[in-house]
Amino acid sequence: MLGVVLFAAWNVTAQPALRPNDQAAGKAGAEAVSRPKSEQSVTQHKIALGGTTINYMATAGTLIVRDAKDQPYASMGYIAYTKNDILDASRRPITFAYNGGPGSSSIWLHMGALGPKRIVTADAAVTPPPPYKIVDNVSSILDRTDLVLIDPVGTGFSRAIGEAKDKDFYAVDPDIESVSRFIKQYVTENGRWNSPKYLLGESYGTTRSAGVVDYLQTMEYMSFNGVILVSMATDLELPAADFFLGGQRSWPFVLPTYAAVAWYHKALPDSPAELEPLLREVRTFALDEYAHGLVLGSDLPDADRKALIGKLHRYTGLSPDYLDKADLRISVPQFSKELLRGRRETVGQLDARFLGVSFNPLGEKAEYDPMDAGITPAFIAAFQDYLRRELSFDQGGTYKPDANVWKTWDYRHKVEGSDIPQPMVNTGVDLAHAMGFNPNLRVLVLQGIFDLGTPLLATEFMVSHLGLHEDLRSHIEIKYYEAGHMMYLHEPSLKKFKGDIAAFIDATDRF
């Protein structure tokens, strides 16, 4: 090693002195060499969708995204699927999609619902170990729209560059801005300004989408045709009682989902034959008697408290004694643990159709989410294999499915017109503004009935409390699925998922 250092030093001093112009040229050359560059792997494929063969190009790569000072500050990974032989791009919609987390890559939507390939998983059960089965996704939306799947900074191959650090992006507003800048840059570099445009986000990706559509429409004057919100979470105080901040406001909104889950697992003391009438009944109870009782707190009369416990037992399947000791308030991890405690089974949280082993029979809360354990190995293995084998893209670095930053994420959000940021983000404000700014914008919400992460009543509440002008209320609609957070894991729901999105695009890609 000493010899190498000495040789390098001798080699430098042996060179003739550089003139000022030479020095400037040398500096510019060094900067050009060190400046990060976009990378791409382009491959050609075909798939049969709806009786038609679609020839398409897959581009797996990175895009160097520039900040407000036009300086590179992020290298963001993406995979784009674009239909070949399109002579007029204005006739071809384009959809930008991502998952949530926050801190999740886009592999779930990619390999589960949207892309031309998907991983086959067991329905509401643990998918067996490899080899996994990857098949053509006949429910892909590629027949309706080109597709760009984005990995936010810190996930996939996306990294901060220049003077920026990954942690600079781990906050609501920097995340919205970086994804918006990626979209604007992709649209510009690929000549898609005049194409019909859509955003599709899942879970925290819906939090992001509401902010992104408002940012791009008001800051960049890039209009969108539609926004698709999968498992809506624009107001993070509402989903799942003790996720995020929790508190009194959260408890009523998860109750109808508790009833649906208990009904599904036949755990109700007097289970009705049909679920929908039960859900209507529990919705009313949750927002009326239950919410009122919670607001009264210790002032709730004993007789009324006893009546509430009786109804909660009927609607959740949990014992009156447990409900009494819980003070009428049951968090999602507690419910997941308690519902089938006698069978030593834990109920899934993101998809409560899934069941898993309850490791500690005396524990208070679920130790893990059986859905996560049941599908994650298959998704990661399938994507890692597909990315390198079929898309021929490998930067030599580590692809990160998850940045694991949701606990340290900065959930504050600055809203236009307010000097003080929201302490817990609610981008429903942004979505309402975007819909008013562009009255032609349409929004489609996709909701799983057995989703304890973003419960159905919370979604309905968020939609009904956007404060939309009367003329715009019909511009947002909700579709329901007999599955969970990732409703597309359930094959009948995957087909419906595709049909609902296809119909939405068909209705909005031309006005």
Describe this structure in words.
- The protein folds into two domains: about 40-240 and about 375-510, 3-Layer(aba) Sandwich (Rossmann fold); about 250-370, no CATH class.
- The longest helix is centred in the middle third of the chain and has 22 residues, at about 275-295.
- About 45% of the residues are buried.
- The strands form three sheets. Strands 1, 2, 3, 4, 7, 8, 9, 10, 13 and 14 form a ten-stranded mixed beta sheet that branches. The protein has a two-stranded antiparallel ribbon with strand order 5-6.
- It has helices spanning about 1-15, 20-35, 105-115, 170-190, 205-220, 250-265, 275-295, 300-315, 320-325, 330-340, 370-390, 430-435, 455-465, 490-510; strands at about 40-50, 50-65, 70-85, 95-100, 115-120, 135, 145-150, 160, 195-200, 225-230, 345, 355, 440-450, 475-480.
- About 35% of the residues lie in helices and about 15% in strands.
- With about 500 residues, the chain is of the alpha/beta class.
Give the CATH class of the largest domain. Alpha Beta
Strand content: 15-25%
Q: What CATH architecture of the largest domain would you give?
A: 3-Layer(aba) Sandwich
Shape: globular
Q: Tally of extended strands? A: 14
Number of distinct helices: 14
Structural class: alpha/beta
User: CATH superfamily of the largest domain, please?
Assistant: Alpha/Beta hydrolase fold, catalytic domain
**Total count of domains:** 2
Would you tell me the overall average pLDDT? Answer: 91
Instruction: Give unreliable regions as ranges.
Output: 1-20, 25-33, 241-246
C-alpha Rg (nearest Å):
25 Å
N→C terminal distance: 69 Å
CATH T-level topology of the largest domain: Rossmann fold
Helix content: 25-40%
Order of helices and strands: HHEEEEHEEEEHEHEHHHHHEEHHEHEH
Q: Major sheet, described briefly?
A: 10 strands, mixed
